[in-house]
Amino acid sequence: MEGTQRLTEKTAAPPGGGSAGPRALYGAQTWSEVLYLLLSFPLGLVGFVFAVVSLSVGVGLAVTVVGLPLLACALLGCRALAVVERARARALLDEQVPEPGPLAPKRPGAAAWCVALLSDGLSWRSVLYFVVLLPWGVFTFTVALTVLIVGWPVLPWVVRSLAVVDRMLVGSLLSPSSLSERVRELEDDRGTVVDTAAADLRRIERDLHDGAQARLVALAMDLGLAKEKLTEDPETAAQMVDAAHGEVKLALQELRDLARGIHPAILTDRGLDAALSSVATRCTAPGGVRVTVDLPTRPDPSIEGIAYFTVSELLTNTSKHAHAHTATVDLWRSHDRLMLQIRDDGTGGATETPGGGLAGLADRIRAVDGVFMIHSPHGGPTTITVELPWHTHADTRR
Predict the structure, then answer these.
(1) Are residues 155 and 197 in the same domain?
(2) Strands, DSSP E only, in the chain?
(3) Domain coverage including residue 211
């Protein structure tokens, strides 16, 4: 009697409670999977015919001028059909298959597009998917239809077992590989680094042309005039030489500032602690800036430079826009990462506006596998956290 009671309790209380079990087994997800299995045959037939016929024509004409372009078009068509299959898996199987990034030919032109398609792994995996989908679709269509008609009690279990295989097919053949996505990210990051370097070179050229160069040209002219007056009006010539001496000092200061903007000597010689303390003295926050650096050793020089210019730019923003009274800068090492946090008690509201200074700074940090996060509610305070690799990939290879 006791055993019967326990058995009754188990069957009367399935997961979800009461009669929820049968409803869950024959719920919306089950019918979505049934629809997916039934659609696999006609869609698999379309994909199979297109892939086999177009590829056969392309391969057969490969020795001619039009062969490879036709083969590339066949792969492009398979990629387009794969978009439909990923959408079907998301809608009916609830399988969140990510979309791949767009093809990125190395050069403009039709030939580069053909090369990109012919060397794209996802395109060939899409072909394999449609070749496999037809026989599998025939099998799942037959089984699903048979169970619907004569094997109704086992329908949920059979359907879900078949759907597991479909999820594996879609996930393994139609999902972008982690390696290809990583390559695409690195190519995007490389473009960001190149653009940033070009912008920095333009800035240096502009600063030299408008600053020190213009000042030195004017200085040369003043010294030439002073030389002419040296014999006939020594007193005026002396005054002009004295003024030129002041111009030399200003030109030297501008050159020092420019050199500091490229790579400060104090950073190379003494590291981040001394360099950031020097940057902090230039911040106009009335209460000053407290700098805390807790680094057992020095990171890779290129990472040091990124950290230095990040703090420098953020403290400049604090001076110009934050209306802050005090600010703090903290650096420490966490495993193989350099952690950096800048806080100020200003008015807040800082955001990564596209094309803005913070967005450009974030792009440069993310280009080296870094992390850039802003927490800046209106009214403040603002906290910006930066995470950088301790070593660059090149340094690791060495």
Answers:
(1) no
(2) 289-294, 327-334, 337-344, 371-375, 382-389
(3) 186-262
